[in-house]
Amino acid sequence: MKLNTHSSTPLYIQLKQALTEDIHRGIYSPGEKLPTETDLCEIYGVSRITVRKAVLELVEEGFLVRQQGKGTFVQHPKVKRELIAVNGHSEYMSELGKAPHNKILSFNIQPASKQIATALCISSESDVLELQRILYFDDKPLALEISHYSLNVFPNLNQYVQDSISMYETLKSKYNVTPVHNKKLLNLIFANAAEARHLECEVGEPLFKVEKIAYDVNKQPIHSSFLYYPANRVTFTIDTSTS
């Protein structure tokens, strides 16, 4: 589709509109690699400078994402996650009608650090279960989660850890414990090499870091977690409506 060179609208804006429309029409699908600059020049009848300006702005606006050494790809729609929600990842996926999927990277028993002990209201050096998982949305990593549970509170919890099994469901069925509220701290950081590898993103890419402590009905800590979300894959919402 050639652009209108006689229009008062700058060509790069016309190209942005054309690419956006083609994405919405499914000509370029989420996750699909965009044609090369040379091909885009030919398809839309514009210069390389016009293509670069249009693509750069679409990257900045979140429609496209660049992967170093691989090319430019159509961005997947962002996942909307309620920031103050108490439910876990598996419960959230079920609400969306999707099969929960997570992959365990590691789980081990270790003495609680001072920070974790303070968060869980236990003594330092008490045994905790550290669980590291990747949480998926469809087949794309949505978050890297590192959680800690007190083994004094949940003895033998390590025996029940499995891929794609809800930890909240395990706590409810095995220990009769259900989270009723939580505290979260949200910050923006930049992905290091390990985080980028697990989340399939670039080193230095912005991540949302959520520090979370979940509590039971007696206001006792259930677990402490750190969750890392690629900023271009999730939008956090806050619903303060009252009934």
SSE order and pairing:
Blueprint: H1 11-24, H2 37-44, H3 48-60, E1 64-67, E2 71-74, E3 79-82, H4 89-95, E4 102-111, H5 114-120, E5 127-137, E6 140-150, H6 167-175, E7 181-190, H7 193-199, E8 206-215, E9 221-230, E10 234-237
Parallel strand pairs: 3-10
Antiparallel strand pairs: 1-2, 4-5, 5-6, 6-9, 7-8, 8-9
CATH superfamily of the largest domain: Chorismate lyase-like
Low-confidence stretches: none
* Beta-strand residue percentage: 25-35%
Amino-to-carboxy terminus distance = 51 Å
Q: What's the count of strands?
A: 10
Task: Provide the CATH topology of the largest domain.
Answer: Chorismate lyase
* Multimeric status of the protein: single chain
**Tally of alpha and pi helices:** 7
Q: Any idea what the radius of gyration is?
A: 22 Å
Main sheet overview: 6 strands, antiparallel
What general form does the structure show?
elongated
SS-derived structural category = alpha+beta
The string of secondary-structure elements, in order, is: HHHEEEHEHEEHEHEEE
Give the tally of structural domains.
2
In what order do the strands lie side by side in the largest sheet? 4-5-6-9-8-7
CATH architecture group name of the largest domain: 3-Layer(aba) Sandwich
Helix content: 25-40%
Mean pLDDT metric: 90
CATH top level class name of the largest domain: Alpha Beta
